[in-house]
Amino acid sequence: MKIGIPKEIKNNENRVGMTPAGVYELVNLGHTVYVQSTAGEGSGFFDDIYQEVGAVILETIQEVYKSSDMIVKVKEPIEEEYALIQPQQIVFTYFHFASSEALTLAMLKSNAVCIAYETVEDADGTLPLLTPMSEVAGRMAIQQGAKYLEKPIKGRGILLGGVPGVSPGKVLILGAGVVGVQAAKMAAGLGAHVTIMDVNMKRLRYVNDIMPSHVVTEYSSVYNIRKHIQTHDLIIGGVLLKGGKAPKLITRDMLKLMRPGTVLVDVAVDQGGCIETTKATTHEDPTFIIDDIVHYCVANMPGAVPYTSTLALTNVTLPYVLKLANKGWAEACAEDTALQKGLNIVGGEIVYNEINDAFDWGVKQV
Ligand SMILES: NC(=O)C1=CN([C@@H]2O[C@H](COP(=O)(O)OP(=O)(O)OC[C@H]3O[C@@H](n4cnc5c(N)ncnc54)[C@H](O)[C@@H]3O)[C@@H](O)[C@H]2O)C=CC1
Ligand SMILES: CC(=O)C(=O)O
Ligand SMILES: [Mg+2]
């Protein structure tokens, strides 16, 4: 198979869809790998390293899309890329369709086979291709949140860990999944007081067992959320309804319950966000303020730490890339139920229900 690795063009997206280690394996199996010139540079993988393991370097993104049966990348295609996608081409990447009607319509029109990293799902319900990036984003959420709590950048002026004689800051985490647990771990490590909420009692029991006593669990009800947002300094949104639009747990009117300078980090922004006032931001301009509340809503947080993120991502994607390359998408998905769940749009049809639900199109269920 001919496999193409384009350079990411989203704002400050420095990850790349395949490392030289992946190219090495594919080329040894007889596949051809096209890598766009400088695609790996942001992650420390230069063209000559790819060439040494047998990649063909192409100068332009147009050549990569045109030459390949399968595109392996990181972020969802952005508008400039829509027209580059070829009919029947496999596109293996994060899509987050539920947050973008424009992307969904463009991919329906493309007639491509869109396999979304974020909905590949193991038998136990976990999401193996989302997990590593959620680990990165969960940890980063505290790093970023701690920074934006500083007064000169309009935060409350709180040091999360406190100091001897002064109480630590308080962190509220919505969702006790991968993002939530990683964020709780980092916040607890800094000495902050942490409240973590979920509707899944099994998760809350697990968190209660593994976390120190300054991390407390609470059931995620509207009443409890309204109560806690009044006293917490940093609020992290990490909820997910697989493949669907995130539920709005903090509505616009609730901002006035918070103290000025409270920081919201809505990690779930890529699925539309769990805060009503969320709108996607970029690493270049990551925050905005509404009603004195600082919002950080960067949809590609791991893109800022590509040396870590590219390796963490490609460690888990490569086995699936190899399957797709060796067998083609239809046979690979028929044999592997986890990968089958990644199928979102195939040949102009949505094949993942939650995408239909997200847009309220009222069309057929799959
Ligand atoms: N902005 C970024 O750069 C990144 C964003 N993400 C996003 O972060 C979000 C979370 O991802 P994961 O932690 O991997 O998902 P996960 O599936 O591990 O955890 C989500 C948790 O939300 C809980 N939940 C659902 N409804 C809830 C409610 N009403 N109240 C409280 N909890 C509720 C679920 O029970 C689950 O435990 C996803 O949207 C993911 O795409 C992940 C990585 C990077
Ligand atoms: C999961 C996701 O949105 C990211 O890694 O950018
Ligand atoms: Mg996105």
TrEMBL record:
Q: Which residues form the Alanine dehydrogenase/pyridine nucleotide transhydrogenase NAD(H)-binding domain?
A: 149-297
Concerning CDD domains, the annotation shows: L-AlaDH
Q: Which residues bind substrate?
A: 15, 75
* GO cellular component assignments: plasma membrane
Cite the EC number.
1.4.1.1
For whether the record's keyword set contains Oxidoreductase, the answer is yes
**Ranges of residues in domain Alanine dehydrogenase/pyridine nucleotide transhydrogenase N-terminal:** 4-137
- Cite the source lineage: Bacteria, Pseudomonadati, Bacteroidota, Flavobacteriia, Flavobacteriales
Q: Which GO terms describe its biological process?
A: L-alanine catabolic process
Q: Which InterPro entries match?
A: Ala_DH, Ala_DH/PNT_CS2, AlaDH/PNT_CS1, AlaDH/PNT_N, AlaDH/PNT_NAD(H)-bd, NAD(P)-bd_dom_sf
Q: Give UniProt keywords alphabetically.
A: NAD, Nucleotide-binding, Oxidoreductase
Q: Which residues form the active site?
A: 96 (proton donor/acceptor), 270 (proton donor/acceptor)
Q: What organism is this sequence from? A: Formosa agariphila (strain DSM 15362 / KCTC 12365 / LMG 23005 / KMM 3901 / M-2Alg 35-1)
Q: Could you tell me which Pfam families the record lists for this protein?
A: AlaDh_PNT_C, AlaDh_PNT_N
List GO molecular-function terms, semicolon-separated: alanine dehydrogenase activity; nucleotide binding
Name of this protein? Alanine dehydrogenase
Binding, NAD(+): 134, 198, 203, 220, 239-240, 267-270, 298-301
Swiss-Prot/TrEMBL catalytic activity: L-alanine + NAD(+) + H2O = pyruvate + NH4(+) + NADH + H(+)
Protein family (similarity comment): Belongs to the AlaDH/PNT family.
